[in-house]
Amino acid sequence: MLGPNNYGKAEVRIVQVRRDDPHDLVDLNVSVALAGDLASTHLTGDNANVLPTDTQKNTVYAFARQYGVDSAEAFGSRLARHFVDSQPTIQAARVSIEEYPWRRLGPHSFARSGEGVRTATVTYDGTAEWVVSGVTDLVLLNTTDSEFHGFIVDRYTTLAATTDRILATAVRASWRHTASPSDWTDCYLAARAAMVEAFTGTYSLSLQQTLHAMGQAVLASAPGIAEVRLSLPNKHHFLVDLSPFDLDNPGEVYFPADRPYGLIEGSVLRDDAPPPGLAWGF
Amino acid sequence: MLGPNNYGKAEVRIVQVRRDDPHDLVDLNVSVALAGDLASTHLTGDNANVLPTDTQKNTVYAFARQYGVDSAEAFGSRLARHFVDSQPTIQAARVSIEEYPWRRLGPHSFARSGEGVRTATVTYDGTAEWVVSGVTDLVLLNTTDSEFHGFIVDRYTTLAATTDRILATAVRASWRHTASPSDWTDCYLAARAAMVEAFTGTYSLSLQQTLHAMGQAVLASAPGIAEVRLSLPNKHHFLVDLSPFDLDNPGEVYFPADRPYGLIEGSVLRDDAPPPGLAWGF
Amino acid sequence: MLGPNNYGKAEVRIVQVRRDDPHDLVDLNVSVALAGDLASTHLTGDNANVLPTDTQKNTVYAFARQYGVDSAEAFGSRLARHFVDSQPTIQAARVSIEEYPWRRLGPHSFARSGEGVRTATVTYDGTAEWVVSGVTDLVLLNTTDSEFHGFIVDRYTTLAATTDRILATAVRASWRHTASPSDWTDCYLAARAAMVEAFTGTYSLSLQQTLHAMGQAVLASAPGIAEVRLSLPNKHHFLVDLSPFDLDNPGEVYFPADRPYGLIEGSVLRDDAPPPGLAWGF
Amino acid sequence: MLGPNNYGKAEVRIVQVRRDDPHDLVDLNVSVALAGDLASTHLTGDNANVLPTDTQKNTVYAFARQYGVDSAEAFGSRLARHFVDSQPTIQAARVSIEEYPWRRLGPHSFARSGEGVRTATVTYDGTAEWVVSGVTDLVLLNTTDSEFHGFIVDRYTTLAATTDRILATAVRASWRHTASPSDWTDCYLAARAAMVEAFTGTYSLSLQQTLHAMGQAVLASAPGIAEVRLSLPNKHHFLVDLSPFDLDNPGEVYFPADRPYGLIEGSVLRDDAPPPGLAWGF
Predict the structure, then answer these.
(1) D242–B199: do the CB atoms touch at under 8 Å?
(2) Half-sphere exposure of B251 toward its Cβ, with a 13 Å CA cutoff?
(3) Nearest to B280 by CA among B172, B170, B130, B134
(4) Is B11 part of the contact surface with chain A (CB cutoff 8 Å)?
(5) N or C: which end of chain C has fewer CB within 10 A?
(6) What residues are paired with D90 via a beta bridge?
(7) Which of residues 160-179 of A touch D (CB under 8 A)?
(8) What does the pLDDT look like over A74-107, one tens digit per residue?
(9) Could you tell me the fold of the domain covering B128-282?
(10) Which CATH superfamily is domain C1-127 in?
């Protein structure tokens, strides 16, 4: 029996230049996924209901020229609606976008800036639309104001309690909108700033506590945000034992480990948040 | 309001040597995720209910010594059950394992072999257990017996129909068990072999059709497999246009593109497959 | 016959926190390579002349505590000199350092910033020392002021001449010092700024011309810099052909390709630059 | 002053299908670098002497069709000679090729196999040609027959001597030919097999000793090989301390670390090896 399925073109890279004075650019990685009446291509290879992924790619480029890219959210919405509304066989579309940041260096010059990648995912089923915004690869670190103690001790415990540690993470956050803000980019910047401020301003007894503060801050940044999901690796920084060399190490020299790492995932939502529908997946 | 959440140690790397004659080794990447009564660490930083991720890591290593690793599935099950059964505050555990293949070169010598990574995910909630096996990074290619035509044509179509193309993909597949096989490794090898045979043996009119054949083959390989989920990138190989150089190109010289790529995702399940419960996620 | 050889510990990750007001941190990836009287370990496995790589790692951490990290160049120099001066069997040492940038967010908070990684390589042979500074992964883009035409045309030419294209690269640059500046970090920042200014300010007829301007700018930024080596990928941005959709594309919608890419490598040096010695390799 | 420079197209991906019975395929990543009379493009942007990198790419594809790919070495030689011999302004060319292995599954079906990538680099200056063959990403592991002791002990030593450890590495090896073998692929396979046999068969007192044995084995595999260069990371496998859990660990449970790692580099050459010329770099 054929179960749920979808298909699309992933990672369509597009750079759009706005030749105003000064020039501006937007740098996107667009992925499309479509679902619908697709049983026949699965069962017999009859493609009469299939809009090729190559055509999806062409549409991304053509729409950028025809309509421009106001924001990742608006561009994703336009694309998702097009695929469903123009194709009777396509019943739902999800457009996921990564937007890479660039910093202006001059009237037509830019440097790729690495402080996180903006994300947007728009899902449309012919009736309702779900918009999720977010950020990924935003690496934050506090050198102090982080403790961890009072945890369960069992046979396999060796971890010592600590009242001062480095807390570092690479933020992956997504927030679901129930209303469109007047400006998607302003909304993104406010949510992101609130989240960063919560990370830096929270005296942390666990990364979970920090996560919750960050989620609450995002909700507080805009009334139209109903839910936030965060995935926060605990990027461990281990104090190096220098005692074999007759040296102390008063919170100074750390080994930042690659693997393994803690991974804390959680969500914060308003009491009156509506059901997520297709916001988080087909 | 705090929503669903979980936490754990990700990517615990472990190599276990069995010093029999000949030696053998197993090479795993183990990730643990726990859920339960964790509101207080989120809301106040009270960690009384938290089993530290460091302890989870220790448990992985200790269990490997105490009980050995019969198979990724059995090892994952033992760990998942331990965390839930030994900790009143932990109500569900998911253990996800990647197993890297090595080929024997001699009585104590091995070469890392790259044909895919075996995966296993075991979820346990104190009562029921869900076991999912799978493979990832298995790259397959047919040089012929693949067509693609008869698709929708719209304003944005430029793709030409073809009756002979290269079909290549990097298989990511997972299958859900409703009964434990007598030998997890035999079951894995049979499912994998069936899937590869379906890829190579299917005359393909669409990658969806190949996906469906692969899913059916996995189901047919073992009665205890109820559902298969596949994610197949279409790794495009474009025929290079050599006509500017007065050369033909009869299906000989291709440019394998990195991005964008098609992405086909689908599932195949038995008519009587039970609901998935927590098999695919908390 | 045993030929040239070296050994060492690669990628020792270290984060050092300075607990002043405000806190500061330095984030390094240190690699050590040693050469000397090492024939016996190669030929017979006699390790009497070998300083283990584990000890090298320990030394990196201990020196950070004992002496601090003033700059990557000074820290590398101290380490390189130590290995050669303290071990009769070690005749030359190279210490290569990557320094990851962080941006201050608060008195003890930081965000990982992605605009390039600072590099330093110090080589010492017991008598002379060579210091090379540099930057890598600095991605720059001009939306205009770049042409490319007048090139050789042969049987295999299909490229059209252009008088307006996007020029983008990921800078990898290294510069060799013949004198120590008063402040290594100031020197780095000045060289980097000069290079970026040359990229943005050069009306470019070829990426080679831009490379040369960047190299000259680095030389001009400090009298103690004798040579600059640059490796500049030409990160192609191809204008998408929208004519099949009855759309023009006046320098607006581009496809940034991953592979293949042009790669331009060149050096600029002062007329009176001394020979490089071991600056660029053992 | 303009110093040494070169330019070219990097990472031209090509898959060539031979439609015999059964089908066969070759999968290459080709990089070209050219040097010559290129001062004017650096100094003034005059490109009259520049063969565009786009043309180099076209030539790779056209030559694959015109002449086929007998071996990476022969294909690289043909390309390198073409660029120098056909262009008066190009005085030297280097063609570097990675060849990805595929394992046959059927008459037109293949699986990407991961046991190492074959490499070839051909350099030609209009008169002489240098051919280097090699392998990279070949991961090997011995579970025993490896010791490490008798090393220097200083203030920073904490490493314990061991008489039984895991020895693992990812081989990166290149060997320089002074004569062309009758069959490049046979020669590659013999050199590689000799190297693997030396790794598995050497009772090792240091990774340097193993490296030397591997280099000697490659030299012994073919009279036309004059020099071998090896770069061997010591992929550390640390025995996990299970004593806190009242468990012993008799060489059974290991943590394979990512970073830092030892890195051993060395060369082995015949007594009568001629000077390398441009074999290892412009």
Answers:
(1) no
(2) 16
(3) B130
(4) yes
(5) N
(6) D36
(7) none
(8) 999 999 999 999 999 999 999 999 999 999 999 9
(9) Urate Oxidase (3.10.270)
(10) Urate Oxidase; (3.10.270.10)
